[in-house]
Amino acid sequence: MRTNIVAHAAVALAIAACGCAHHDANPQVMADETTRGVYDADYGRTTEHFDAALKLQVTRATIGQLSDQMHALGAYRGLKPATSDPDKGRYDYEAAFDKGTMLVELRLDPTQKIGAYRVVPQSSSAPAR
């Protein structure tokens, strides 16, 4: 009986440890999910991966304004890597739309949350292919 209790406790501890294990975030997936949230003007999806400080800076109105800029470029087609500096947690992606591109700049904080997210319209956007 005591062996059963110890075995169950060990299994419970192993499950808890797996749940707390550190998982490296995938910056491109996070950037894409966030950009899709902005495009859809969805506050919850946009801020899902943000750290607490960044969430305080974002409003539904600012997401709506950025969404309107994105929709002016047509349908969102996804991201492709531009530049990155993983040691500093900085990643840049080109967001492709039917009628042009935007630069998505992302910085991950030490907890693997998005600490900075910025979308920059490209001045000479050519249609994405």
Key phrases:
129 residues, alpha+beta, Nuclear Transport Factor 2, Chain: A, 5 helices, disordered N terminus
Question: Could you please say which CATH topology applies here?
Answer: Nuclear Transport Factor 2, Chain: A
Please state the overall shape, judged from the principal axes of the Cα atoms: globular
Largest sheet: 4 strands, antiparallel
Radius of gyration: 19 Å
| Total number of distinct structural domains | 1
Sheet with the most strands: spatial strand order: 1-2-3-4
Report strand %. Answer: 25-35%
| CATH level-1 class | Alpha Beta
Mean pLDDT: 84
What count of helical segments does DSSP give?
Answer: 5
Distance between the termini: 66 Å
Low-confidence stretches: 3-22, 125-129
CATH architecture: Roll
Order of helices and strands: HHHHHEEEE
Topology, number of strands:
4
SS class: alpha+beta
Helix content: 40-55%
Give a written overview of the molecule.
This protein is an alpha+beta fold. It has a single domain, classed as Nuclear Transport Factor 2, Chain: A (Roll), CATH 3.10.450. The protein contains five helices and four strands; from the N terminus they run αααααββββ. The chain has helices spanning 2-20, 27-39, 43-47, 52-57, 60-71, and strands at residues 76-85, 90-97, 100-108, 114-121. It has a four-stranded antiparallel beta sheet with strand order 1-2-3-4. Strand 2 and strand 3 form a beta hairpin. Residues 3-22 and 125-129 have low confidence and may be disordered.
